[in-house]
Amino acid sequence: MSTSWLDEIKWTEDGLVPVIAQEAGSGQVLMLAWMNRESLALSVQEGKAIYWSRSRGKLWRKGEESGHEQIIHDIRLDCDNDVILLEVEQKGGIACHTGRHRCFFKQLQGDQWVEVEPVIKDPDTIYK
Amino acid sequence: MSTSWLDEIKWTEDGLVPVIAQEAGSGQVLMLAWMNRESLALSVQEGKAIYWSRSRGKLWRKGEESGHEQIIHDIRLDCDNDVILLEVEQKGGIACHTGRHRCFFKQLQGDQWVEVEPVIKDPDTIYK
């Protein structure tokens, strides 16, 4: 399979691209993470989201420990070729490492960020 | 109004934060852009999306020329405090500068990016 589609992406100086994961069905935006060329190619190959962890400096197979994998249904690229949007099935219904459904659980109310979404599962029981 | 909520955001070295704009109602992810401290404060103050244009190095009042403003309904921050999600009403139904509803109109099909969403309005008639 040709890899020229990877060359069309405008990678950052660090060789990364921001990736938005949106849940199929609900349409909820679950998280934003980053991929490099290798992790995107692997994601397409395996049909599962494999990100690049900037903090750990290595491939991050989403759900590897937790089982909370993201099965890819659709992959989009934006007009500027520098942002990717994934439509995913979120295994276990938990995308966030805090044990919540998704990472966007803090809502701006007046001049405060308020946590408005519940913890579904204690992170201590998710990560052994 | 206190601005400590702005201090809670983990800005990049360049003082920016990525911002996802999602359409209220349809749930479609329209675009990803960037904000700095000033543009986010102004967005909250005016209730409309005001981004920071990295290419032009200045405030980008979305819809200023085109009329395609984004009215903010909800503002979320993620678990790591480094990504913002806006729920917006997209005026004119066009978020993308190509005249399409949204920026994510290229779909990966096999090893090719294919444009799968129509141009609603010729950009030449949007920007005078």
Fraction of residues in helix of chain A: 10-25%
Largest sheet of chain A: 4 strands, mixed
Strand order of the largest sheet of chain A: 2-1-6-5
Task: Write down the Rg of chain A.
Answer: 15 Å
Describe this entry's structure for a reader:
Two copies of one chain form a homodimer. The first copy, chain A, has about 130 residues and is mainly β. In chain A, about 15% of the residues lie in helices and about 35% in strands. The first copy, chain A, has three helices and eight strands; from the N terminus they run αββαββββββα. In chain A, the strands form three sheets. The first copy, chain A, has a four-stranded mixed β-sheet, with helices on one face. A two-stranded antiparallel ribbon of chain A has the order 3-4. In chain A, a hairpin with a 4-residue loop joins strand 3 and strand 4. In chain A, about 35% of the residues are buried. The mean pLDDT of chain A is about 95. The interface of A and B includes residues 27, 112 and 113 of A.
